[in-house]
Design brief:
- With 406 residues, the protein is α+β, with helices and mostly antiparallel strands.
- It folds into two domains: 49 residues, no CATH class; 307 residues, Cytochrome-c3 Hydrogenase, chain B (Orthogonal Bundle).
- 48% of the residues lie in helices and 12% in strands.
- It contains 17 helices and nine strands.
- A four-stranded antiparallel β-sheet has the order 1-2-3-4.
- β3 and β4 form a beta hairpin.
- The radius of gyration is 23 Å and the shape is globular.
- The chain starts with 5 loop residues before the first strand and ends with a helix.
Length: 406
């Protein structure tokens, strides 16, 4: 905690009539805030009177930067907004551009997008679970749970060449086809995964200390979630089974069978188990991907106004080389109009609102990031709670600061 404490002399200034309150800061350098987040706490002893999140320390400027870049170049920014879920960010953005252009994406590419989105969801939830349990004092899960995340990052690297921020999804399809042996590696991962998840659950499932820290703590009702525009696992932990993959299917999610996990308590314990259950549902979707993705097939649109020429043509065809040069340097024009497209990311609804003026760069580029909206609930979750429960609340929201300071 920062040492710039301040005692409020007039209790009425803090809205507390029975005693003085003290104002302290948690962050923005505190590791328990999961990034450069500052929380301004008004305390009456150990009891929280008010918890005010203060954002803006990251200074990313993603939205304005995107308006100086071509539509394809903007894709690299979406990786970095939520670096734990780059694939779902990629998907929301390319779907928005494709909707503006009326592009048809090959079925094989749609299924591959689903596959990597679910791998990303598992990896993101594992990082969240490991760090959240570490906030509660459980160190062992942190070291173990990164093992499966490493396997997932290896799979992403096999396909895209990059472990993080791959920009693998492209407008019209995907950047490269799946490499030889990829599906076998995915099959091996899914075969071992239930055994590892069982071991992880043994580390925390029946731990009375973790249950005591989470049950009945930081309760957020369904009405409060809707009032704050909360989405994702936080909303489903309050009992509302809203998931864009089923409510507004995209990228052929309607072809997959899976459940939407929910809980009713709306507390930190419920949020933990919704995310754990989602890991199993993502694995169920991945099992279906193994059966639905064909070994060979078209993975990019045939529209040459958008798609780069095949690499083997570039070296022997001057027209193809010129075409590639112009697409890379100038981009492709997008018809004038506006569009919004949302997807179900690990933290909730990730969406992009684009305004096109007919040129190769977006006129307006705005992101609807789940961490930004979900963080609004922190004051409601922490009011009249204990200081120690503020750390639990921040962890249970599952924020990524690049997703907040956009």
């Amino acid at each position: 905690m920062a040492n710039d404490t301040q005692v409020i002399k007039d209790p009425q200034d803090a809205g507390v009539s029975h005693s003085d309150t003290m104002v302290i800061n948690i962050g923005p350098q505190h590791p328990a805030t999961h990034g450069v987040l500052r929380v301004r706490l008004q305390l009456d002893g150990e009891r929280v009177v008010q918890a005010e999140p203060v954002i803006g320390y990251l200074h990313t400027g993603f939205e304005k930067s995107a308006e100086t870049m071509t539509y394809q170049q903007c894709n690299t920014l979406t990786d970095r907004m939520d670096y734990l879920a780059p694939m779902t960010n990629n998907l929301a953005y390319v779907l928005a551009v494709e909707k503006l252009m009326g592009l048809e994406v090959p079925k094989r590419a749609q299924y591959i997008r689903v596959m990597f989105s679910e791998l990303t969801r598992i990896a993101s939830h594992l990082v969240w679970l490991a760090t959240h349990l570490m906030d509660l004092g459980a160190m062992s899960p942190f070291f173990y749970m990164f093992r499966e995340r490493e396997v997932i990052l290896d799979l992403i690297e096999d396909a895209s060449g990059v472990r993080m921020n791959p920009s693998y999804f492209r407008v019209g399809g995907i950047a490269y086809d799946l490499p030889d042996g990829f599906m076998d590696k995915l099959r091996d991962f899914l075969k071992d995964f239930p055994r590892w998840m069982k071991m992880y659950r043994n580390l925390f499932e029946d731990n009375p200390l973790i249950a005591e820290r989470l049950k009945g703590v930081n309760v957020l009702t369904q009405e409060a979630c809707l009032a704050h525009s909360v989405t994702g696992p936080m909303l489903r932990a309050s009992g509302l089974a809203l998931d864009l993959r089923q409510a507004e299917p995209y990228s052929s999610y309607e072809d997959f069978e899976f459940d939407v996990p929910t809980r009713d308590a709306g507390d930190s314990f419920a949020r933990l188990w919704v995310r754990v259950d989602e890991i199993y549902q993502s694995a169920k979707i991945l099992e279906q991907c193994l059966d639905m993705i064909t070994p060979q097939g078209v993975y990019m649109t045939r529209d040459r106004k958008v798609a780069l020429p095949p690499r083997d043509q570039i070296y022997g065809d001057m027209e193809a080389l010129i075409h590639q040069f112009k697409l890379v340097t100038e981009g492709f024009p997008v018809p004038a109009g506006e569009v919004y497209q949302g997807v179900e990311g690990p933290r909730g609804e990730m969406g992009f609102y684009l305004v096109a003026d007919g040129g190769p760069r977006p006129y307006r580029w705005r992101a609807r990031t789940p961490s930004f909206y979900n963080l609004q609930t922190l004051p409601a979750m922490c009011a009249d709670g204990l200081v120690a429960d503020v750390i639990v609340a921040i962890g249970s929201i599952d924020i990524v600061l690049g997703d907040v300071d956009k």
